[in-house]
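Budget justification aside, the reviewers requested a transparent look at the raw inputs and outputs of the sequence design task funded under Objective 1. We therefore reproduce one unedited record. The lines immediately below are the structure tokens for a 164-residue chain.
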């Protein structure tokens, strides 16, 4: 039986390779032993969105929001899902929430820029673009530190800082 870290890595690798069904299967295996596993819920939601199984993606996100209400990546995924469903106002709200909980999520800043531009708010679009540009200009190690800090992984963030 694979360890939890190995299962997470296997699911991530499957998603990165475009094997969304395989990634979903791996996430569901993890959820069978721990139905509130935040990382598995997130990966399952991502896989379902790519498989265009939007109702299932929404159900996984609802469970994830209940388990980890301040998890920025979950709100980012909710934004991607709302955008895929043609709900720009809901998407913008989710992306804004994502960056409130984790300001290092450049995909959320970029999505906000596009959505603000679409709704005719050029100043807000420029501000979102500036935030994304600022984060992308940072060394990747410091961006990783930001992600770990905002996910509550303080020891991991400290390790990255010390190494950097």
């Amino acid at each position: 039986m694979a360890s939890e870290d190995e299962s997470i890595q296997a699911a991530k690798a499957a998603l990165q390779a475009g094997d969304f069904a395989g990634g979903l299967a791996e996430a569901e295996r993890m959820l069978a032993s721990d139905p509130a596993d935040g990382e598995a819920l997130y990966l399952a939601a991502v896989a379902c969105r790519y498989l265009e199984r939007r109702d299932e993606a929404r159900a996984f996100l609802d469970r994830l929001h209940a388990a980890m209400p301040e998890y920025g990546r979950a709100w980012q995924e909710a934004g991607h899902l709302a955008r895929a469903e043609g709900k720009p106002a809901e998407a913008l709200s989710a992306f804004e929430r994502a960056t409130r909980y984790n300001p290092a999520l450049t995909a959320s800043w970029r999505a906000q820029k596009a959505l603000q531009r679409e709704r005719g708010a050029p100043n807000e679009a420029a501000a979102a673009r500036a935030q994304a540009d600022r984060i992308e200009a940072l060394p990747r190690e410091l961006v990783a530190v930001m992600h770990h800090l905002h996910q509550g992984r303080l020891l991991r963030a400290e390790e990255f800082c010390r190494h950097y």
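The two ends are 35 Å apart (CA to CA). The mean pLDDT is 94. Computational costs for records of this kind are itemized in the attached budget.
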